[in-house]
Amino acid sequence: MAEPIGLASGLLALATFAFQCSISLHETVNSFRSHPKRVRDLLEEVEALSAVLGPLAEFVKASTDIDLSALDLPLLRCGSACKEFQQEILKCSSRSDQNRTNFRDWARLKYMGDDIDGFRRLLAGYKATINIALTDANLRQTSVNSESLEDYKRLIQDAKDDLEARLEVLDGKLECIVEKSVAQSGPDAAELQSMRDERLSTEKCLQICAQLSDHIDQIQLISDRGDASHGSDGLNTSPESVTNEGLQECKNSLALTARKLEKHMQDVMKRLLSQSKTTISSEKDEEDLARLQDEWNTARQCLDICSRADNHLKENVSVIENYGTGDALQFMVSTNGKILHGKNRALGWRSRQVGGYVSDASVQQLSRDIATINMSHLRGMEPPSTDHSNVDQRDEVEGEMTAEFKQRYGQGFKLRSMSFPEGSAPSPTTSR
């Protein structure tokens, strides 16, 4: 029990650090009178970031049973980026001839070679990743409606797209440094070139794994069907289900391979950049390289967080939206332990609904029971009976029916016997 509490304490400290740095950055930017459009956009992004970091700190403080340690590096880099950009603003404003409240030279501000818009996009990536991790944790404790889940899916996809674009930019910057190092390293050029080729090869392998996994998603069949075949042991034995199990094993193997490649990529990049530092002459360039490396690692960690949240949503959450009218029978059940999110809605004179976590056998038994009740209703609301006289009466009625009557009115059923005064009882007949 001591380990989760220790992890939570460390995460809480990082969340608090990032939150305080975001608040301080907002106050610094807001202290100037001049706020061009790009500065106003930055202020909005910093506010949105703070609005995510605050609830995260509260969640970590209240929960010790959910592991969010994957956020350690993103939170550290988020807080450091806010603090370092604030220092750049103060440094730039101190060199300006104008007083601080009238500082207008926003275009000169740079962070890791990017302008204000680039820094704002960097913060947006942190915000999205933290929000996704927090939502993923909340989904394990509470339920949300299907509309919120759709918004969450779009958030994950948008964050993954933005992070992949961010990684491309960082890869380009790192590649420039490596090329420069290869050109200047002399005797070590061959070793640097070999490590560079290994990094590019690993990147290509990761792309292949991602493409194959996406292709499996596209061809994967839906096995959770209502008419699925079940064996004597109660397991789903339909061809679609068997195919899906094999495809899922392929996806799991690809995910394991991708994790190994990611680890190898980080090791190669670490060795490559360590070797490249020998060609750097100034302390500032060395700091910039170290910051770039940290940001590259953080972007990959953020992308991994988003991918895991996406997988958790696909594998552990079932979304069901039932809407029926008239004589409606609705099932909203989970037979495999998946989290249920959805609604049973019906407008009709006789709507029946089933919801909850049950076994396949229970669902089948409920279906049979409801079907039996329906037949009883059609037979004058009489409950099923083992009395063979009922069968004989039904055969007698069917024998009296002509083909024309059946075609026009249907099968029909025997009416209940009723007591009438002598001489007024109607003759036996059938009714649809």
TrEMBL record:
**Signal peptide annotation:** 1-18
Q: Where is this region: Disordered?
A: 408-432
Q: Which InterPro entries match?
A: PigL_N
Query: Could you name the domain of life of the organism this protein comes from?
Result: Eukaryota
Per UniProt, residues of the Azaphilone pigments biosynthesis cluster protein L N-terminal domain are: 2-210, 240-306
| UniProt keywords, alphabetically | Coiled coil, Signal
What protein is this chain from? Answer: Azaphilone pigments biosynthesis cluster protein L N-terminal domain-containing protein
